[in-house]
TrEMBL record:
Gene: LSM8
Coiled coil: none
Domain Sm, residue spans: 1-80
Protein role: Plays role in pre-mRNA splicing as component of the U4/U6-U5 tri-snRNP complex that is involved in spliceosome assembly, and as component of the precatalytic spliceosome (spliceosome B complex). The heptameric LSM2-8 complex binds specifically to the 3'-terminal U-tract of U6 snRNA.
Self-association state and partner proteins as the record states: LSm subunits form a heteromer with a doughnut shape.
One cellular-component annotation, GO: precatalytic spliceosome
Protein name: LSM2-LSM8 complex subunit LSM8
Length: 100
């Protein structure tokens, strides 16, 4: 990630996908891609498969650190769209690991 791009994401709501397939959403408060990424008001979204009767879940994590070498993707969140989605009703396939 370039420093200009990182600075434009600071203090904004982002979605992070990790190499092990976790989906984390929160406000980006600090980043050093060689070490750690910090999210404030972080939530992990656990999306269940369509054949799973259990609803998907959002697990509140508070301020959360993610090791920089486990970050696969960082993207800005469209907050009005995000707020309009009932994440407990979202179903989908598991994102596989990118570790080999």
């Amino acid at each position: 990630m370039s420093s200009g791009l990182v600075n434009s994401y600071l203090n904004k709501k982002v979605c992070i996908i990790t190499v092990d397939g976790r989906t984390l959403v929160g406000t980006l408060i600090s980043v050093d891609m060689s070490t750690n990424v910090f999210l404030q008001r972080a939530v992990e979204r656990v999306i269940r498969s369509p054949d799973d009767d259990e609803p998907s879940a959002e697990i509140e994590l508070g301020t959360h650190m993610i090791r920089g070498d486990t970050v696969c993707l960082v993207g800005l969140v469209d907050e009005p769209l995000d707020a309009s989605i009932d994440w407990t009703k979202v179903k989908g396939a598991t994102i596989g690991t990118t570790k080999h």
